[in-house]
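Structure (tokenized):
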């Protein structure tokens, strides 16, 4: 079973090279966007500082509290379990319903049908 789940918030425990150049340093935060080989590796969207667009459409530094600010994506990289630590589980970051939707999107049709049957059972049990 995978150590981390889809959409978990994570932080790097070691620096890793970025595909487009540069290095993501220890402590860089990210989100698991794909689980590979049942958790042997993960595709992680890594984030830099807070930015926003200026009137010319260019990124400028910002703070989290500024309107329209967001964390800049610095890379989407393959990362291994020993290079990550969990910062926030997907269930807490997204809410249970959103997390379930994300999980369902990655299941086969047969497994989705089983989940549906179980959900209907729970509904009738209420």
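Design, position by position:
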């Amino acid at each position: 079973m995978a150590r981390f789940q889809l959409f978990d918030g994570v932080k790097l425990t070691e620096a890793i090279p970025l595909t487009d150049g540069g290095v993501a340093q220890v402590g860089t935060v990210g989100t698991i966007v794909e689980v590979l080989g049942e958790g042997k590796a993960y595709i992680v969207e890594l984030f830099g500082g807070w930015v926003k667009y200026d009137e010319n459409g260019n990124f400028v530094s910002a703070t989290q509290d500024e309107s329209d600010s967001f964390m800049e994506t610095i890379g989407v990289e393959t990362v291994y379990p020993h290079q990550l630590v969990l910062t926030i589980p997907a269930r807490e970051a997204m809410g249970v319903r959103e997390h379930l939707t994300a999980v369902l999107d990655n299941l086969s049709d047969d497994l989705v049908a089983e989940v549906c049957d179980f959900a209907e059972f729970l509904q009738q049990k209420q």
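Reviewer-requested clarification: Strands lie at 9-12, 16-17, 23-24, 29-36, 41-53, 59-61, 70-79, 84-88. The chain has a mean pLDDT of 90.
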